[in-house]
Design goal:
68 residues; 24% strand; single chain; 3-stranded antiparallel β-sheet
Length: 68
């Protein structure tokens, strides 16, 4: 099944960054075409069926934040 996604693209120094607006996935590349291809691959990996692997280590961290 094919699905369309929106991407926000911006430049950071010598690289382009692309972030999917519907899913929390981002990538980078040296050209706009490359960054979109890399984002496409990252999205395909994101939606792949999970593979049985060792459970990830999950930790909680505390961070001081100023009152707004």
């Amino acid at each position: 099944m094919e699905k369309a996604f929106s991407a926000s693209i911006w430049r950071e120094d010598d690289l382009y960054v692309a972030q999917c607006l519907e899913v929390d996935v981002a990538s980078q590349g040296t050209t706009e075409d490359e960054v979109l291809q890399n984002l496409r691959e990252a999205l395909e990996l994101h939606f792949e069926s999970p593979q049985a692997t060792a459970a990830p280590l999950v930790k909680t961290i505390k961070v001081e934040v100023g009152a707004a």
